[in-house]
Amino acid sequence: MTQSDIPACGTSVKKEPRHTKQGIYQATAACITADDNVGYLIKLLHTSFNRMIDRKVTPLGLTAMQWRPLALIRYRNVDTPAELARQAHIDTGAMTRTLDRLQAKNLITRSHCVEDRRVVRLELTDQGMQATEQIPAALADTLNEHMQGFNKDEVEQLVGFLNRMLLNGRNPDDTD
């Protein structure tokens, strides 16, 4: 990569001491409109994933906001609203509203913990279990459609790059 190949977008990533500042992007006005801005491309990809998954879970009577808590309850054994909110990266109020809708659709039940009545436990209903059985296919289809033309090595490399970016951006105070 020559100096002229370096993108013109600025970033301010706080890195851990073992990392050196690479300075790949430059802080210029082009940062706003750069087609090679990795953050912007990741945001567009996230939006594309959500839009496609939303279309695929609509026949299940779910929205993009509703399938994720169901999947976390079933496949990651998350059973409290607070932990669901943490893992879904949304605030507790938004999670409560989503759980209200899922309960109204008879997909989950809520019950108070016997040991601590302040804690609410979540469970899937039979109808919720049936709906979650179809979520992995919707996710796999979405990922496969987005990964058309990639071979296994390229996918593994991309996953490695994304994990490295997440590690670089990790806040040292984060506990998860």
| Widest β-sheet, arrangement of strands | 1-2
Sheet having the most strands: 2 strands, antiparallel
Mean pLDDT, all residues? 84
| Distance separating the two termini | 35 Å
Classification by helices and strands: mainly alpha
Q: With helices defined by DSSP (H or I, 4 residues minimum), what is the helix count?
A: 6
Q: How many β-strands, per DSSP? A: 2
Helix content: 40-55%
| Rg, Å, rounded | 20 Å
H-E order: HHHHEEHH
Strand content: 5-15%
Shape: globular
Unreliable parts: 1-20
In brief:
This protein is mainly alpha-helical and 176 residues long. It has 6 helices and 2 strands; from the N terminus they run H-H-H-H-E-E-H-H.
Secondary structure topology:
Elements lengths: L37 H20 L6 H12 L5 H8 L3 H13 L3 E5 L7 E5 L1 H21 L5 H18 L7
